């Protein structure tokens, strides 16, 4: 399945290969799609950023572009994948090293001063270990849900290894900011994890909690910018998109 407005290219690093779909002109942003895959709502989100003057890159990590959501099937595949640490706590998934290499290539090709990134749901925390790469200057987390698990320990765990975390802390101490979003009633992204992020990064961690009560009937409260985004002025998700765009313009265009 093709994306009419996006150009596909293949990128390989250290034995891992994936297709990248790119569109737009301007400072680069990498959108790392969530568990249901690169759905129509994910592509719509990318096109909103393209319309704001960014060049957006969508790595296809599993599934097909513009597909219908199929989270259960993909979750099973990811559980046995060597690229993702779904349940392992305080470890950096191998796919993150591939994403860092992608950042280096995109920055070199664009000659941009830096790259923006956003992870969502299963990939929601990836922006943090990606900050080991100096080219990541606008990191964003949306409903970070890994590692999975219902225990108190799992809910408070992060998906980044200690060595990587030390590097990220030094970048934060040097002035790097982090932006994050989550619904207050999100069943998949525990509040305990957000608390750990706040304690770890302090004021550098700008967190926006959206009220699930403002969602229309029948609309969920997990995917802030994709499946549960409400394109209405004044709605919390529309306001979140506004802050996201503002953050990217501050860090990438300022």
Any overview of this molecule?
- The chain has 254 residues and is of the alpha/beta class.
- It has one domain: Rossmann fold.
- Helix content is 34%, strand content 20%.
- The protein has an 8-stranded mixed beta sheet, with helices on both faces.
- A hairpin with a 2-residue loop joins strand 1 and strand 2.
- The chain is globular.
- The N and C termini lie far apart (37 Å).
- 44% of the residues are buried.
- The mean pLDDT is 92.
Short description:
The protein is α/β, with parallel strands linked by helices and 254 residues long.
Name the poorly predicted regions: none
Strand adjacency order, main sheet = 1-2-4-3-5-6-7-8
H/E series? EEEHEHHEHEHHEHEH
**Annotation, overall tally of beta strands:** 8
CATH superfamily: Alpha/Beta hydrolase fold, catalytic domain
Question: How far is the N terminus from the C terminus?
Answer: 37 Å
The CATH architecture name reads 3-Layer(aba) Sandwich
For the largest beta-sheet, the strand count, sense and barrel status come to: 8 strands, mixed
| Helix percentage range | 25-40%
CATH hierarchy, class: Alpha Beta
Number of domains: 1
Number of helices: 8
The third-level CATH topology is Rossmann fold
User: Can you give the mean pLDDT?
Assistant: 92
**Percent range for β-strand residues:** 15-25%
Shape: globular
Question: What structural category do the secondary elements indicate?
Answer: alpha/beta
